Amino acid sequence: MSVALIYPTHKNIQEELDRYEAADFNAAAFPVRTTVDTDLTSQNCWNDEANQVEAIGLPVVKTICNTCQHRISCKVVGYLGQTIEARGADVCLATHKRTAVTGFTELTQGRDYVSVHEDPLEILRPTLMLKPQGLDEVCQLIERLLTDPTYLNWYSDGQRRDGEGNVFHDPEQVVRRERIYEALVVLDRLLQNLSQTIEQATEPKPWQPPEVMDSPAGFESFLWWAIRTSKLRFTESPWQFVLAAFNGRLEEVMVLVTEHHVKGLPQGVTQTHKECVGVIHNNPPAGCVVWINDATADREFLENLIGTQIHDQTPEGMIPTLHQAQQYVRDITRKTSKKRLQAYVRGLLCKYRNKQRIGLITHSNHLSAIEQLEGEFLSRIVKMTYFGSGDERSSNAWHTDCDLILVLGTPRVPPNTVMTLLTQVGQSEAACIIPKWDVIHWYGHTTAGVEKKFEGRGYYDKTWMRAHQSLVRASLVQAVGRGRGILENGCDVIVLSSDECGLKVIDEPVPALGHQLLEFYEQVRNLTAINSKIYIIEKYAVSTADVAKSLQMPERTTRLLMSQLEELGLVHRDGPRSGWKLGPNPSVSHSHTIDSIDSENRHLNNQSPPSERNL
């Protein structure tokens, strides 16, 4: 049987490829093209122009490989050879992006069975983006190619040289070049129409190319030659969108118009931002079994999307969880301050002190703040990544490397991302109107079993709300899933988000150990070092008055700070009137510690949704 396995990233593929090769399967992965050695792959391309071509969106193989001086060796030991090997293997592995770019049917041609892992939307409806600056750069080139006498003479030139250097006239060359000229004329009309549409757009609106055609032979290579000879510099990557529109491969195109706040200017001052999104229909191949493995998949949604019947083969029933996933209704946004974020991380690490190997998933701009934590906290964080990295939704290493995973924040998306999703799923009319964004309410169950109303933020329009929630909740579900709560060797997960996640809610403030409180704690700990005969606080209790006097602080302030440290389990008292000691109270079973729960309670009270939807 011939099989194709499709995963989100090359890192996922390498994990699976090692397993198949160890079991002596004839397996191979579609390669990453690279001109340098990397951690994952060795150099397999020796033409630096390929990187330049790829950077501006032209197809590398069509543009560069046919005339590359390394082509013969590349087909043996390079990128082309590895691609040929993957196509011929009994088990081939490819990324979502490879499948989207190559085409679902073309990539899996001749396969009996295809398995897609994780969200298939970016495969079934891949999107291409175009910014106005990139469009302007393409327009400049095409205008030059249609007006510059140098290029106009080239189109009608049929002169060639044979192997001995003799000049001869080749009428077929004239025909090929005339076809390129005709294609440029059609492309110019398309670009002018799109430019005018974008310029006139004051709100989101759909667009369709006035005329499309297949690219003539050698068209991409000619464009690259013209770009080099004209010495035009492309700062964007426009060609993938432009060629897809020109070839008629974009089923929907939407001009997105949004208002962005301008940093540094007064509140309410905005700047209009425009870009285009195009959607390609990339339906599964016919004549083979296609299996979709995704925890967030929905049969009805996929049937409406691709217009064919889908069978939901997910087993009935719910799998009991062996580890807990719980939520604090407190959001961490990209704008959350460094001090507040660090305070929450310190507080959570104090509260869940029985978990020594911590994994952390948050926004990309917050990773540097985490890395600046004090050594006693940072040393416990063994794995970190950010929303959108790929690791937070597809890596299988989290639950084995960590005892607890902290998911800090909500991976919310801007309006243009919601508009893109609505365009992908064929709801272009809804995408044209941006609704109000404000406070919304949702109901959840607390860890005490009480249903309660909580406050979050969202769109007031139902279609936009569903689209936004599907994007956000899918990311959170995947992040929570890194804990593999149904496995014996899984781990617990704590989420900080104000969005409904389907988790039990810890209905109390997030534990926080801010910088000032941490400094106070350090002073308390140092009392022993200052005068070990009087303040042996690790072994003997000291009163609030003694601590206040030593630190020269008001007794009332000291009592408040000591109570906060007690909440975090950093100090304790044996009784209400006894003195303070360092560390948690050994005689108290702390309700904040996530411990194992007996099998019956797991089954009755803490069931999880199925780990995968099998479609």
List its salient traits:
615 residues, alpha/beta, six-stranded mixed β-sheet, six-stranded parallel β-sheet, 27 helices, 24 strands, elongated
Helix and strand arrangement:
Blueprint: E1 3-7, H1 10-22, E2 27-29, H2 49-55, H3 60-63, H4 71-77, H5 79-88, E3 91-95, H6 96-102, H7 104-107, E4 113-117, H8 121-124, E5 127-130, H9 132-147, H10 149-155, E6 159-161, E7 167-169, H11 171-200, E8 205-206, H12 219-230, H13 239-246, E9 252-261, E10 270-279, E11 289-294, H14 299-306, E12 319-320, E13 325-328, H15 338-351, E14 358-362, H16 367-371, H17 375-378, E15 381-386, H18 391-394, H19 398-401, E16 404-408, H20 415-424, H21 428-431, E17 437-445, E18 451-459, H22 462-481, E19 492-496, E20 504-505, H23 515-525, H24 527-530, H25 544-551, H26 555-567, E21 571-573, E22 580-582, H27 599-605, E23 607-608, E24 613-614
Parallel strand pairs: 1-3, 1-4, 2-3, 4-11, 13-19, 13-20, 14-15, 14-16, 16-19
Antiparallel strand pairs: 5-10, 6-7, 8-9, 9-10, 11-24, 12-23, 17-18, 21-22
Q: How many helical stretches?
A: 27
From the N-terminal CA to the C-terminal CA, the straight-line distance is 20 Å
**SS elements, strand count:** 24
Low-confidence stretches: 530-536, 590-611
- Multimeric status of the protein: single chain
Q: How would the global form be characterised?
A: elongated
Q: What is the helix content?
A: 25-40%
If you average the pLDDT, what whole number results?
89
Structural class: alpha/beta
How large is the share of residues in beta strands?
15-25%
Largest sheet strand order:
2-3-1-4-11-24
